[in-house]
């Protein structure tokens, strides 16, 4: 457990980093996951305001509990995507595919390019990126109701 | 795109308000003028909830809906309290923290998805301008800017033709108007083919009922029966020849006319593309524009030459068949006609299923081709890492998936069509079942059906399946054609952003004076790339443009070439506003040598003489000699006749650059723009290019953008440009004298890096 490394929140909500060993105190950092999709809890780079890495966390589980909590809270923000619970309709328009979905965050209609197919990760997550760059994630096909499964099947099977 | 269409698009595609709600506006506008506003579509706990952020000259407001569905102002923060806007980004959300200092809680924070990022970025930019400069003087309309920013990703991804489908179809068909004669002949051919096709079956029935049967009954002699039978057979033969004649007429006229229409559209499209401003091309992918001129017009040809007529014929055939069958025998006719809608519906349902299956197959196909497009260009890496087996495995795996998908498709259609035909046969069987008792009944009975009528029926029945199939494919064909038409009309409907006035000033021979008077410019309407710039450059003067990347150097040269019009202020050329000049004549007197010179596919001679008529070989050689290109051209086996491939890939960077300099020399521009002309070459080549450029710039007004300060040693003045402003100007020695100046720092840095070059 790395006791000398600490992460905590500043007053304006910024993530602050301290390393007692190298006498670094309260440096504002942002966390960048090296493997955000395949291994999100390991190899997390802490970068200062100039984008330089100040520390590389190899395994979040080995950090102090309070630091883990702070980091998880920060990563939740950094990794924010919309979680799709239900598909209402998928329609094709000229040059675009329109998705009408219900997400954990609320209902949303978004469009992707026709040739932008949903990506299925090795653990079954389905990831869609719309034309504005927003990311929508379906936990797995099984997490959807029957109608949604049928709708998405054309695009992932 | 007009305001109504923008509103429609925002509401249809983005499902958010198309402008700031009136209630919010009324809460603010009675005291303050709104500069810009945006929608924050995420709450603090990351729910998709809407609130508005409104920027005025004094404050930022946040407004949202309360429990009674009324808008209220949640927060108002005075701009002068804000010291910094901090941006926290995540994969699909951005948070702006408006701070007085880092160690204090934010004055306010807003959160939004990437969809709102452009408009929110504009707001952040304006707030930062206001923090730095006290206030801003916006030159844009808040509603227009909000609409433009919100719709930008959508309009870049999709065509933005707003017409309804029927309007687009009519507009497409209007291209047939110049070919009325061909349309009439082709359509008449199609109609006649259809009508004539119905006759042989009728005659066959007539032959049986009026000749064979009476002969068998002894009512006609052999000679009379043979005579009539031969007349009928000859008539059928003549009709079949006539049918093919009309069929030829239709196919010939319509396919040639379709080609002419496609040619007209291609010509119109390409001519229009040449008139469009650079911003159109920077917003669209090259491939997308090319495919509109090529494959989209080809689809239109297919639709006009065959689609329109085939569908027309199918409809006429079905209507004709139905009418004839009901006329021949109402009961059997209805028995045949009534199942047709059921067959059509089943074809439609099957078509929808096939559409989804094809979608899957295309997706797998694209996975397969991705392996090819990855590995073929990178084959040396594959071999170097000994990964051939792995790549073969990957390819085979995807190949199997593609095959499996296509086999599913084959299984589906091969099952469907026999089933459909079974349905058709069932109808035939029903007809037989109803007809047989009547065929064997007495001629005096009311239900009696003659053998001839029944044979006609059987022959007509065989004609039913083809039109049903064509109508089943009509929706797909129409959608493909409409989709192409939308993409084509989008380009045709785009207006050039460079305005052209009536009776422009024609300056035949420029002297080359360039004046910028209070010029400001922004690509997106909000973020200024050039800020209130003022300078006068005399004829023949050479100006070096240096500064940080993205500072505005290249934009300045594009404004001089009038690729864009300024938003504020004016540019004067020889004392005349650039907007009042005849654009073609002006551009012919402006030359450009760019970092990546573009050579067209063709020989070197034509590339040097590009755009000029009646250039002599002497002039071409002379220009090449001045450009230090003559010697290397003669080393090529075919000399000046050497074909330089697409984009001139057969020549090195330095060689291409010297050909482009020769081209500029031949044009003899009075204003010359050199944009990083020597940055991508080695020192020896740079020396040769520099020597060529030194000859080129004589007697011309020159604007030279350069990172290597060594290339600007001959400049009369150097402008150091930063953040869209001229922050320093003077001669090389004057600028070096400013020890803390940017130029001096830049010079020292370059000297340290290169060690020994002298400016």
Helix content of chain B: 55-70%
Care to count the β-strands of chain B? Answer: 19
Our measurement of the CA-to-CA distance between the termini of chain A, rounded to an integer number of angstroms, reads 43 Å
Q: How large, in whole angstroms, is the Cα Rg of chain B?
A: 37 Å
Strand order of the largest sheet of chain A: 8-7-6-11-10-9
User: Number of helix segments of chain B?
Assistant: 25
Query: Ends of chain B: how far apart?
Result: 51 Å
Q: What percent of residues of chain A adopt helix (DSSP H or I)?
A: 10-25%
Largest interface: A-B, 39 and 43 residues
Indicate the structural class of chain B. Answer: alpha+beta
How is this structure best summarized?
The complex is a heterodimer of chains A (157) and B (759). Chain A has helices spanning 65-78, 146-156; strands spanning 5-9, 15-19, 24-33, 42-47, 53-59, 82-93, 96-103, 106-113, 119-120, 126-129, 135-138. Chain A is of the alpha+beta class and 157 residues long.
Give a topology summary.
The complex is a heterodimer of chains A (157) and B (759).
Chain A: E1 5-9, E2 15-19, E3 24-33, E4 42-47, E5 53-59, H1 65-78, E6 82-93, E7 96-103, E8 106-113, E9 119-120, E10 126-129, E11 135-138, H2 146-156
Chain B: H1 3-14, H2 22-29, E1 34-40, E2 51-56, E3 59-65, E4 71-78, E5 84-89, E6 93-99, E7 108-113, H3 117-133, H4 142-157, H5 165-173, H6 180-216, H7 222-275, H8 278-283, H9 286-328, H10 330-337, H11 340-375, H12 379-384, H13 388-439, H14 451-461, H15 465-472, H16 474-493, E8 514-522, E9 528-537, E10 542-547, H17 553-560, E11 568-573, E12 576-577, H18 583-587, E13 590-594, E14 602-603, H19 604-608, H20 617-626, H21 630-635, E15 643-644, H22 653-667, E16 671-675, H23 683-696, E17 701-705, E18 717-722, E19 725-730, H24 732-737, H25 742-754
Parallel strand pairs in B: 10-17, 10-18, 13-16, 16-17
Antiparallel strand pairs in B: 1-2, 2-3, 3-4, 5-6, 6-7, 8-9, 8-11, 11-12, 14-15, 18-19
Helix pairs in contact in B: 1-4, 5-16, 6-7, 6-9, 6-14, 7-9, 9-10, 9-15, 9-16, 11-13, 11-15, 20-22, 22-23
């Amino acid at each position: 457990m790395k006791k000398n490394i600490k992460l905590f929140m500043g007053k304006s909500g910024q993530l602050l980093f301290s390393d007692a060993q190298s006498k670094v105190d309260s440096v504002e950092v942002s966390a960048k996951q090296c493997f955000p999709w395949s291994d999100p809890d390991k190899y997390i780079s802490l970068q200062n305001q100039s984008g330089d890495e100040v520390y590389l966390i190899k395994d979040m589980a080995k950090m102090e509990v309070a630091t883990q909590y702070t980091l998880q809270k920060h990563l939740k923000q950094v990794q924010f995507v919309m979680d799709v619970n239900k598909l209402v309709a998928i329609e094709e328009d000229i040059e675009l595919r329109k998705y009408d979905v219900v997400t954990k965050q609320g209902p949303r209609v978004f469009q992707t390019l026709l040739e932008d197919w949903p990506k299925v990760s090795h653990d079954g997550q389905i990831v869609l990126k719309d034309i504005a760059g927003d990311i929508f994630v379906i936990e797995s096909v099984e997490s959807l109701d029957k109608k949604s499964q049928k709708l998405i099947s054309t695009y992932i099977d | 795109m007009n305001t109504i269409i923008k509103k429609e698009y925002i509401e249809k595609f983005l499902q958010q308000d198309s402008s700031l709600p009136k209630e919010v506006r009324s809460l603010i506008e009675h005291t303050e003028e709104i500069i810009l506003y945006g929608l924050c579509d995420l709450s603090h706990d990351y729910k998709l909830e809407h609130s508005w952020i409104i920027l005025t000259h004094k404050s930022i407001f946040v407004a949202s809906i309360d429990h009674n569905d009324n808008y209220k102002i949640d927060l108002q923060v005075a701009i002068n309290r804000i010291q910094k806007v901090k941006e926290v980004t995540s994969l699909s959300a951005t948070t702006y923290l408006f701070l007085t200092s880092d160690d204090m809680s934010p004055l306010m924070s807003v959160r939004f998805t990437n969809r709102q990022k452009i408009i929110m970025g504009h707001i952040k930019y304006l707030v930062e301008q206001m923090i730095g400069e006290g206030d801003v003087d916006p030159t844009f309309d808040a509603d227009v800017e909000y609409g433009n920013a919100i719709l930008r990703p959508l309009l870049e991804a999709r065509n933005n033709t707003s017409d309804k489908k029927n309007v687009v179809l009519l507009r497409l068909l209007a291209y047939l108007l110049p070919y009325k004669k061909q349309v009439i002949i082709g359509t008449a051919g199609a109609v006649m083919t259809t009508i004539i096709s119905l006759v042989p079956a009728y005659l066959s029935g007539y032959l049986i009922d009026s000749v064979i049967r009476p002969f068998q009954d002894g009512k006609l002699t052999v000679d009379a029966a043979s005579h009539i039978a031969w007349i009928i057979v000859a008539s059928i033969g003549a009709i079949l020849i006539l049918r093919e004649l009309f069929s030829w007429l239709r196919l010939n006229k319509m396919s040639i006319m379709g080609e002419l229409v496609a040619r007209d559209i291609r010509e119109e499209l390409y001519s229009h593309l040449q008139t469009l401003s650079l911003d159109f091309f920077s917003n669209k992918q090259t491939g997308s524009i090319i495919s509109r001129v090529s494959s989209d017009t080809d689809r239109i040809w297919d639709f006009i030459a065959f689609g329109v007529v085939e569908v027309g014929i199918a409809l006429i055939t079905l209507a004709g068949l139905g009418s004839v069958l009901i006329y021949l025998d109402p009961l059997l006719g209805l028995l045949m006609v009534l199942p047709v809608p059921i067959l059509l519906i089943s074809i439609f349902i099957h078509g929808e299923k096939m559409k989804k299956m094809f979608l899957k197959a295309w997706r797998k196909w694209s996975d397969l081709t991705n392996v090819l497009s990855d590995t073929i260009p990178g084959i040396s890496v594959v071999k170097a890492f000994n990964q051939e087996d792995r790549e073969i495995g990957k390819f085979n795996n995807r190949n199997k998936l593609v095959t499996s998908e296509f086999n599913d498709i084959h299984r589906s259609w091969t099952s469907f069509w026999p089933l459909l035909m079974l349905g058709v046969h069932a109808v035939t069987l029903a007809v037989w079942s109803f007809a047989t008792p009547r065929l064997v009944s007495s001629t005096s009975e009311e239900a009696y059906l003659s053998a001839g009528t029944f044979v006609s029926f059987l022959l007509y029945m065989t004609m039913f399946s083809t039109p049903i199939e064509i109508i089943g494919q009509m929706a797909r064909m129409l959608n493909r054609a409409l989709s192409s038409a939308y993409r084509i009309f989008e380009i045709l409907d785009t207006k050039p952003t460079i305005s052209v006035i009536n009776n422009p000033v024609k300056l035949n021979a420029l002297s080359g004076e360039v004046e910028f008077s209070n010029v400001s410019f922004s690509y997106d309407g909000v973020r200024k790339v050039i800020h209130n710039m003022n300078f006068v450059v005399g004829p023949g003067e050479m100006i070096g443009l240096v500064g940080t990347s993205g500072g505005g150097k290249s934009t300045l040269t594009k404004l001089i070439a009038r690729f864009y019009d300024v938003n504020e202020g004016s540019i004067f050329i020889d004392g005349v506003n650039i907007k009042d000049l005849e654009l073609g004549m002006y551009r012919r007197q402006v030359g450009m040598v760019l970092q990546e010179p573009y050579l067209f596919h063709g020989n070197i001679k034509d590339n040097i003489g590009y755009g000029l008529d009646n250039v002599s070989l002497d002039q071409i050689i002379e220009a090449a000699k001045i450009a230090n290109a003559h010697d290397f051209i003669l080393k090529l086996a075919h000399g000046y006749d050497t074909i330089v491939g697409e984009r001139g890939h057969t020549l090195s960077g330095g060689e291409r650059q010297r050909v482009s300099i020769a081209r500029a020399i031949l044009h003899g521009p009075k204003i010359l723009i050199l944009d990083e002309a020597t940055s991508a070459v080695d020192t020896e080549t740079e020396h040769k290019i520099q020597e060529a450029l030194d000859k080129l710039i004589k007697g011309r007004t020159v604007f030279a953008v350069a990172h290597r300060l060594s290339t600007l040693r001959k400049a009369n003045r150097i402008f150091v440009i930063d953040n869209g402003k001229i922050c320093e100007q003077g001669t090389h020695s004057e600028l070096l004298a400013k020890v803390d100046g940017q130029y001096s720092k830049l010079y020292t840095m370059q000297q340290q890096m290169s060690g020994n070059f002298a400016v």
